[in-house]
Amino acid sequence: MKSGYLIYIITIVIVSCGTNTDRDSDTAERLQQQADNNVVEVITLEKTVFPRQLLSNGKLAATARASLSFYSPGPLASIPVKNGQCVTKGTVLAKVNRPDLELALESAHLSLKKAEMDMLDYLVGQGYPARDTTTVPPEIMAVARMKSGYSVAQNNLSKARMDMDGTVLRAPFSGRVADIFLRQYDQSGTKTFCTLVDDSSFDVAFTVMESEYNFLSKGLAVKVIPYADASCICSGNITDINPLVDKNGQILVRASVKGGGKLLDGMNVKVTVERMISDVLVVPRSAVVIRDNLDVLFTYTDDGKAHWTYVTIITSNGDSHVVTANTSRGAVLSEGDRVIISGNLNLADGSSVVLAK
After folding, report:
1. Residue 116 CB partners (closer than 8 Å, separation 6+)
2. Which of 10, 42, 44, 271 is the most buried (most CB within 10 A)?
3. Mean pLDDT over all residues of the chain?
């Protein structure tokens, strides 16, 4: 009984081994067929200009931004603008009701007129024609102004006008109104009534690693994309590079960007800095694969074979690599080589391939 059971087990093992051997053989054959029938796309390698990119994160700040308050506070008489409204320079943003200042201005006018009469009376008493001060010597005129109180009355009038003008809040530049929280009849107080933001242009501050310092220069082009809207792409230029490295090994950079009504003060954005590199070999990212833990691309030869070439990636951007032959591996890469850019994931050196039509 035991011997029969042992024979049964041996039979099962033999059958299984034969089956596994057949399966491995079939798998290898299928892989070889796949490799021999790979349809690939190629490009002809040539030296070109490459936009090297540096990526960072930044925050927008409006180039012109002002917190506005009344010079002469009081109850709000009118607020003719709303949050988010675009205004031009000089537009009235709000007014306060100050009848006491209106009376003070009128009194200042009257005081000046009286002082002017007293000054002319003094000059007539000194023998000068009434209302003709052109012939009065400067030193006599100065005495007349002081004795009559004319100079003081002029200063009081200027002060009254300034107080009255302070009841009207005007836009010091063109921009967008924000942070209005008070309503009509509320007391304006001395705190900020509103914020005015010029959103036609922005400064964006971002940091780069110290190793990228030589990559940067003033005037270099940048692209800014808000995290809130990836379709919004705005262009600008670097305006300032801080020549200090912080404790995190980073350098602060600032750029100026045109807003175009799409950006907001305080927005978090992606920043891309581009510098053009000329006379380099450029391939799509899809052309480079990993073999033996090294970067490899495949070239196509007239005999319909794919031959791998070890390469070194010099730099990259979102869709391309700048490559050169890995000479330590004896690789050669030249203009005119046809590089496989698709269908290369399963290729081996010497695989037969078919060009896509």
Report:
1. 148, 150, 153
2. 271
3. 87
Dihedral of CA atoms 208, 211, 216, 221 in degrees, nearest 10, equals -50
Q: What are φ and ψ of residue 47, in 5° steps?
A: -80, 135
User: Is residue 177 within 8 Å of 194, Cβ to Cβ?
Assistant: yes
Q: Which residues pair with 61 in a beta bridge?
A: 203
Can you give the pTM of this predicted structure? 0.59
- CA-CA distance, 88 to 198, in Å (whole number)? 10
Which among 262, 156, 265 is positioned nearest to 205, based on CA atoms? 265
Q: What is the pLDDT of residues 57-72, one digit of tens each?
A: 999 999 899 999 999 8
Dihedral of the alpha carbons of 189, 87, 64, 79, in degrees to the nearest 10? 10
Tokens describing residue 174: 């063109």
Question: What pLDDT shows up at residue 132?
Answer: 78
**Domains with residue ranges and CATH for the chain:** 71-96+168-191 (2.40.50.100), 99-166 (no CATH), 195-276 (2.40.30.170)
CA distance 75 to 211: 57
Q: Is 110 exposed, middle or buried (0-12, 13-18, 19+ CB in 10 A)?
A: exposed
Cα–Cα distance for residue pair 295/314, rounded to 1 Å: 11
pLDDT in tens, 307-354: 999 999 998 888 899 999 999 999 999 999 999 999 999 999 999 999
